[in-house]
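Why do we care about 3D structure at all? Because function follows from shape, and shape follows, mostly, from sequence. That is the central idea of this module. The next example makes it concrete: a single protein chain, its amino acid sequence, and then its structure expressed as tokens.
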Amino acid sequence: MNKFEPQPELGAVRRDEALERRGEATKLSGSATVLRQVSNKEEDRFPKTHPTSFTKGLQHDDHGLAATEDYADFRDALVNAAPNMNCLDIAAGPDQRKWESPLAGHYFTLQGPDPDAVAMAPAPKLGLSELAAEMASVYAMALTRDLTFTELDDPAHVVPGLTMPDGATPVSVGDILADLK
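And the structure:
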């Protein structure tokens, strides 16, 4: 047999070795300590407003806070890994991006650790000045996420759908930048 021709018996040997290695990796992953998320207790501190919780896509009031019922439905769908997020009515319009894999932490994967076995440190508590600055920055990025780089570079560009507290004056990229300074 020519040494450059396929050798089916080597394929079977590799398949068996791959199966053995995967079995060992499964045993190893099953013995790892399962870490649990630790709450920073913000939901207990602000049970009706949830100012530090992810509420993008939910209906919000005039002060920018999510409706309590909508937030509770959203949180329960995430925590319980509800299929299709219990068909929640998310406010993303035709020109807005939808959520990307909101239940990704509940998926099973064949590579790396199980997503549910990995935890993050608790979020910092509301009231820290560094956190407040970071929140303002993240909020500004969320407000401008659908703008092109050219639009972001133009301080006079009006951000669609945003108005000043008077409800009439449009908000520009420059207004957002000024508020961040």
